[in-house]
Design brief:
The chain has 166 residues and is mainly β. The chain has one helix and ten strands, in the order ββββββαββββ. Strands 1, 2, 3, 6, 7, 8, 9 and 10 form an eight-stranded antiparallel β-sheet that branches. It has a two-stranded antiparallel ribbon with strand order 4-5.
């Protein structure tokens, strides 16, 4: 069976270094890392009277793991503004119930820069935000900000199809 439908002679899987995250339809500047999309479903044992063969295994509740995004510190305030919707230090420190949840998209590109995969993440919100890393005068590391997104699920965007490679 071919691994790719359009490019049947292609063997190598896609690389994980060309991607972008869109929040409110706009790419996040300086993004350099996105954690794995992972979901797990609980296993519920079910015993049937008179069946001595042991429990049957049936699916239970499904949980979607948080997604962590890391970006180099720039003048882009996307992470900070979103985190402030959950808890704002200024003003009444109340959360914005209307806009703290957002749908985001994760897009993956091939080596030629064509979009090959996309996933839509639903009702995400910031549960952790790190504005600055530890600062160290003896280091020359890039400053990274981080957000942790809780979410209510994700699906693959099937409108994104395999492009013809040349």
């Amino acid at each position: 069976m071919a691994r790719f439908t359009v490019n049947s002679t292609r063997f190598d899987p896609y690389m994980g270094f060309r991607f972008q995250i869109k929040i409110d339809g706009k790419p996040v500047a300086g993004l350099n890392k996105c954690s794995a999309l992972k979901k797990s479903t609980e296993v519920t044992p079910w015993y049937e009277g008179g069946d001595a063969s042991g429990p049957h295994q049936i699916p239970g509740k499904t949980k979607y793991d948080p997604i962590t995004l890391e970006a180099g510190v720039t003048q882009d305030t996307t992470f900070e503004e979103w985190a402030d919707k959950v808890n704002n230090f200024t003003g009444d420190a109340a959360m914005s119930l209307a806009t703290f949840r957002k749908d985001i998209s994760i897009e993956v590109f091939n080596a030629q820069g064509a979009k090959v995969l996309a996933y839509n993440v639903f009702r995400a919100w910031v549960s952790e935000y790190q504005a600055l890393p530890q600062l160290d005068a003896s280091s020359n590391a890039v400053m990274i900000s981080t957000i942790k997104l809780e979410n209510e699920g994700w699906v693959r965007d099937t409108s994104v199809t395999e492009p013809k490679e040349t």
